[in-house]
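User: Assemble these into one structure.

Assistant: Restating your components, then the assembled model:
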Amino acid sequence: MSRAKKFMYINRHAPCGTVYAVEGLEVVLIGAAFEQDVCMAFIGDGVFQLQQDQDTADTGMKNFSPAYRALGDYEVNRLYVERESLQERGLTEEDLMPLTWEDEDEDWAEKSSIYIVDQAQLSDLMDEQDIILNF
Amino acid sequence: MAFELNGKTYETDEEGYLANLSQWDTEAAVYMAKEDDCDLDENHWEVINFLREYYEEYQIAPAVRVLTKAIGKKLGKDKGNSKYLYELFPYGPAKQACKYAGLPKPTGCV
Amino acid sequence: MLHTVNKSPFESSSLKTCLSLARGDADVLLIEDGVYGALSGSAHTSLVAEALGDVRVYALEPDLKARGLSRDRLIPGIEVVGYDGFVELACANDKIQNWL
């Protein structure tokens, strides 16, 4: 088999107002079945997707934010969040939901999937990818 | 589409999955399994209950690879493999078990 | 006049345009992604905080909750209303302008 391709899914939209976020998440979960090297980046309003305590009950919409916690099970365990986007929105890492994955090779040790990176680091990461998809 | 059981109507999609998750009960699961010539035993229920708990927590039905791994972690390696799960659910463990569990078809299943 | 804004201020200029045109007796209601305009400590906080001296600004609670934004994160002076408050605002004003 040829080497796994490096995929980056870039999330740029807020979670509820449009379908970009939920559609993008679905593509990531489907794509994970193909055992490629997958990471996600959250920039702009996309960082709002990871906000803790989203509760859509009063709006009559489905709350899909718990599904981000399943990403670790799908071996999507590198989520890059752009620091500048957080700052512009008055957010810190503490506002984000804790997302982890379990390392089977280390007796299911729980490790964080969230990496706060600055713009320069994110540019470098983009350069490393084979395929970049925007949502 | 729909089926009726003890005077209660269960709406389904064209593939027989429950349209409304909250309508699910054990009678519906047994009925849907019977339709596929499948008698549910405790091993089936173990997987069905696991799937319902997974959905409750993450709001998605897991892909088969994820299900297999998670079952292995929870119920042991002898159950966390595709041979065991396919014997229980010959039409595909995620697809078939999700149906009896009242969940939508797993994300990524065609 | 009641103005509603449903776009994130980081994605669209509708909040900025709305606030620059809204007169002193206006009510401005932030709904859907517009509620991100109510966040304190953001790049758009000063824009809204300055407008608050002039117009009244409201944010719709179900949309705040859906996005995980608690009241303590909002710019002081913004009033949080439910769907009933939305209806009251709509009835209390002679005109409504939706900044789509």
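Strands of chain A lie at 6-11, 37-42, 79-82, 100-103, 109-112, 114-117, 131-134.
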